Amino acid sequence: MKTIESLLEKATAIGGFHELAKEEATMLSTLSELAVAYEDNTLKLMPIEPNTLKQAIESKMAKLGLTQAKLAELMGIGAPKLSHILSGKRDPDVSFLKAAHEKLNIDAEFLLTHSKLFTIFIFSVSECQKNEASNF
Predict the structure, then answer these.
(1) Are residues 117 and 109 in contact, defined by beta-carbon separation less than 8 angstroms?
(2) What interhelical angle do 94-104 and 53-64 show, nearest 10?
(3) What's the pTM value of the predicted model, to 2 decimals?
């Protein structure tokens, strides 16, 4: 890392990467790629995974360069519905989750486990199991 930092400082001081000697530029490139690989594969710093449904949707919006209006159009839902879901004023329904999976390629398990529908489903199953157990 010290070598990367010193080469970056040198490049900055002399007017840019294109001013480095060919060997220095190659070394900087190689060391930078190795550092990225180490951070990604060993430290697992990037990418930062979303923790909420809102973060996942907003991350996809940013990656695709979409506004909320364009995202709503892509997902086949109304812009107000999308706005209400992202602001927490409305819970996502099955059609929203299906569109997020199909149109944005967001993992279905993530969508289900980060939605209120999943919590309601698990609670319902749990209640059914309690009722069945009490009938025996």
Answers:
(1) no
(2) 40
(3) 0.56
Q: Which residues of 77-106 are buried (b: 16+ CB within 10 A; e: fewer)?
A: beeebbeebbeeeeebeeebbebbbeebeb
Task: Give the pLDDT of the chain (136 residues) as one tens digit per residue.
Answer: 899 999 999 999 999 889 999 999 999 999 999 998 888 888 877 667 788 999 999 999 999 999 999 999 999 999 999 999 999 899 898 899 999 999 999 998 898 888 876 555 555 555 656 666 565 5
Nearest-5° Cα angle at 133, 127 to 136: 145
